[in-house]
Write a structure and sequence with these properties.
Layout: E1 3-9, H1 17-30, E2 35-41, H2 53-56, E3 60-61, E4 67-68, H3 71-78, E5 88-90, H4 91-103, H5 114-129, E6 137-142, H6 152-165, E7 170-177, H7 189-200, E8 207-212, H8 218-228, E9 235-239, H9 248-254, H10 257-264, H11 275-286, E10 289-297, H12 307-319, E11 322-330, H13 331-337, H14 340-343, E12 349-352, H15 361-374, E13 378-381, H16 383-395, E14 402-404, E15 413-418, E16 433-441, H17 446-451, E17 455-462, E18 464-466, H18 471-476, E19 480-484, E20 491-495, E21 502-505, H19 520-533
Helix pairs in contact: 1-3, 1-9, 4-5, 5-6, 12-19, 13-15, 15-16
Bound molecules: glutamine.
Glutamine is lined by residues 354-356, 382-383, 406, 461-464.
Length: 534
């Protein structure tokens, strides 16, 4: 029998439900179980692709090109659950499907309602993920906070799983906050209220993960247990880890989270094997050297905008047994002040990540030129590659008006322009070049050295590309085109000649990097930053 685990959140948002869900996934996998992860986002957008990073942080892309919530990135980093469009559910998708069926007359004249039609659609989506052979457990994280109007149909669907599959096949984990007030006292009342709200919907949590500044003492856990009917042993502290989020599976394991889960669900498993996670944490604690890496972009005031890049840089540090300090640099400030010696004085290398729209672009071009001339390690991802091409065309080829048609639609010198397949695209949602596809790498290049093979598969998310009209000129002037699509039509990666580390890629390697399997490009980039720092 397949088991269904639901993770809900209470008190307030941003408590780290995604990492909690991903950590539980990692723990169950470490016991040899085969799991699947699902994220539910109760908003009406069909997917995260059309949302501004200011609203919702990074847009994570899966192999099949789904533009999803950044929590799927946490699942990718912590677990081996394959992720696709099916693993990311939104209110928009559910309603779209139900309305489509209604228009097709598939409800045979019945009144279409939230219960049972919307809830059935939700349940079908969750159950069908687990239909593959040998899946032991499906972990579904329900976004939002209990009590929100939006999440009600999802919670109701989750409640019905108990009715449909029986108590011993369904488990509810609730993440909540235990705030500390002046004087250091920990307050359990918000947790009591949020569990009460959950119980009003008919869900009795089995396990509470309590976000708190430090381990809760027995008396506090006992009090929470008394008010919530959750066993004292299942009141677990999700305390703030000091060093790295990759310690969280170990923190939970110490408090027997995985044991409680398998006992409740009556699953026979081996013991947890967490050596790899322990090693990641050990490296983190024992790293003697460290580098400071810049991320030059325009969304630098928000933590989650470059989440996967941030983590992939950390993984690069793990690969080199080094610490990585990340500094966010606002490209608009570079544009205004232009003082790059000052900006980059203590930086050992920097990265220009993906991005859209014109704001801050000239600052990025200035920064890329600085890195190229000064021999500072530079990693351009997607927009970061396009910036490299524009800068090179202007400075080396002498094409003063070189630009992307994204920023100068009528420009004289469109070294980066719209992909031909994008010419007639009008709609915004899900219409970019998206998902996993093949690139062929040229032997003898830096990127080839990283992957050590000619054929690679990486994920894409862009509308613009290097214009083929300028390819010959760029190459004749030294720019190395190190990777192309197998039909040679699109430039996939480039490198600066005679430079310690200047690499641009049109794809997004950050989406597939894991702490226990750092991406080779990030590992190699951090190695170059370390060399630069010496
Ligand atoms: N705006 C650029 C494009 O659409 C880059 C996209 C990105 O960096 N993800 O091609």
């Amino acid at each position: 029998m397949r088991k269904y685990i639901f993770i809900t959140g209470g008190v307030c948002s941003s408590l780290g439900k995604g990492i909690a869900a991903a950590s539980l996934g990692a723990l169950l996998e470490s016991r040899g179980l085969k799991i699947r992860m699902i994220k539910i986002d109760p908003y009406i957008n069909v997917d995260a692709g059309t949302m501004s990073p200011y609203q919702h942080g990074e847009v994570f892309v899966t192999d099949d090109g789904a533009e999803t919530d950044l929590d799927l990135g946490n699942y990718e980093r912590f677990t081996n659950s394959p992720l696709s469009q099916a693993n990311s559910i939104t209110t928009g998708q559910i309603y779209q499907e139900v309305i489509k069926k209604e228009r097709e007359g598939r409800y045979l004249g019945r009144t279409v309602q939230v219960i049972p039609h919307i809830t059935d659609e939700i349940k079908n989506r969750i159950v069908s993920i687990g239909e593959e052979k040998d899946i032991n457990a499906i972990i579904t994280e329900i976004g939002g906070t209990v009590g929100d109007i939006e999440s009600f149909p999802f919670l109701e669907a989750a409640r019905q799983f108990v009715h449909d599959f029986g108590r011993k096949n369904v488990l509810f984990v609730h993440l909540t906050l235990i705030p500390e007030v002046v004087g250091g006292e920990l307050k359990t009342k918000p947790t009591q209220h949020s569990v009460k709200a959950l119980r009003e919907i008919g869900i009795q949590p089995d396990i509470l993960l309590c976000r708190a500044p430090h381990l809760l003492d027995k008396a506090t856990r006992n009090k929470i247990s008394l008010f919530t009917d959750v066993d004292e042993e299942a009141v677990i502290t999700a305390y703030d880890v000091e060093s790295t989020i990759y310690e969280i599976p170990l923190v939970y394991h110490k408090q027997k989270l995985d044991q409680i889960v398998v006992d409740r669900l009556e699953i026979q498993t081996s013991d947890a094997h967490l050596d790899l996670w322990q090693e990641v944490v050990n490296i983190h604690h024992s790293a003697k050297e460290s580098v400071t890496v810049g991320i030059v972009g325009k969304y630098v005031n928000l933590n989650d905008t470059y989440k996967s890049i941030h983590e992939a840089l950390m993984h690069g540090g793990i690969a080199n047994k080094a610490g990585v300090n990340i500094e966010y640099i606002d490209s608009e400030k570079i544009e205004k002040s232009g003082d790059m010696d000052e900006t980059f004085r203590h930086i050992d290398g920097f990265l220009i990540p993906g991005g859209f729209g014109q704001r801050g672009i000239e600052g990025m071009i200035l920064a890329a030129g600085y890195a190229r001339v000064k021999g500072l390690p530079y990693f351009g991802i997607c927009l970061g590659l396009q910036i490299m091409v524009i800068e090179y065309a202007r400075a080396v080829l002498g094409l003063k008006d070189a630009n992307s048609t994204e920023f100068a639609p009528e420009g004289e010198c469109p070294v980066v322009s719209l992909l031909s397949e994008q010419m007639d695209v009008k709609a915004y949602g899900g219409t970019m070049r998206l998902g996993r596809s093949e690139s062929s790498l040229k032997s003898g290049t830096r990127i080839y050295e990283c992957y050590n093979k000619n054929s690679i598969f990486e994920r894409h998310r862009h509308r613009y590309e290097v214009h083929n009209r300028f390819r010959k000129d760029l190459e004749e002037n030294g720019l190395i085109i190190s990777g192309v699509t197998p039909d040679y039509m699109l430039v996939e990666s480039i490198e600066w000649p005679d430079h310690p580390w200047g690499v641009g890629v049109q794809f997004h390697p950050e989406f597939t990097s894991k702490p226990i399997k750092p991406h080779p490009l990030f590992a190699n980039f951090i190695e170059a930053c370390l060399e630069h720092s010496m």
